[in-house]
Amino acid sequence: MALLAGRLNRQVLVVILLLLNFVSSAAYGGEKKSKFLAAYPMVFKFLLFWWCVFVFAVMTVYIADHLLYRKFGPAKVAWRAEHIFRGVSRDDLWAQLADPSKWSCDHPVLQTADVSLVSDIAEPKKTDEDSTSDKVDEEVVSDKSAEERPFENPKKQFETRKLGQLKKGHGMILRHKAESGPQAGTFFCVRECSQIEEPADGPYLLVMRTVEAGLGYPFLENTEVSEVEIFPAEDGAVRCKLTGMAEVTSRIFRWWANLQKDSQEAAMAFLESLENQASASKEKQKS
Q1: What value, to the nearest 5°, has the Cα angle with vertex 95 and ends 93 and 101?
Q2: pLDDT single digits (tens) 174-217
Q3: Which residues of 19-48 are buried (b: 16+ CB within 10 A; e: fewer)?
Q4: With respect to CATH, is domain 75-123+160-286 assigned 3.30.530.20?
Q5: For the chain, which residues make up each domain, given as ranges?
Q6: Predicted model pTM
Q7: Superkingdom of the source (predicted)?
């Protein structure tokens, strides 16, 4: 189906380009062809010609972008950020990354999304094949509602669990905030904790991977991977490094949406905000 759709798109583009070539030739062709638009004023023909040039240029860019994707694959978006934290312990910082139960409402993740933890990302919840006819009817209704309201929930079913520290193979579902407008409450993405380590003499490591995406998600599904390392304290300072990478199909979209710059700035802002969150959590524990 995808191959057929790609062929149809190319055929439509070819037809459009041929029509544009015919109209521009009719407007500025020989004496016989010029009679095609003889009844129209010169200003109209001038604007029509440059409109055809503009549309031709846009189509050319679109086709070139598609060919680049076919030849070289998706476009990469990468980010890297480091921050030195002072006055907070490594465990306090770690809690702001790996333990959603200790996040306040001002946490950078909770400011833009509602979070619920789920278990067994790699093996989502399965329905009973020997279900009764009543259960089958319920599933049909559920499927119809999903068609009417796409992106409201993940495609797969996951078992939710109490807020606590992330575990390998488990993860979280992010939804748009309840007061975020038309997209309020809709599904944004599922993030899996693919690796988590807390060695005593080495850096703490947290690797998160997006396994399913919903409405408003800018990257290709199952391509975004982020890695956070928190190194042991040295002279009262804790170093944190965040790296990540994702992919998009269109290089034009990557440039137009400014994804590379925005992703880099978001990574820096995320680390800087963690310092305030860790400090506030530390003060709350003292009081």
Answers
A1: 145
A2: 998 877 677 778 889 999 999 999 998 899 999 999 999 988 89
A3: ebeebbebbeeeeeeeeebeeeeeeebeeb
A4: yes
A5: 2-72, 75-123+160-286
A6: 0.73
A7: Eukaryota
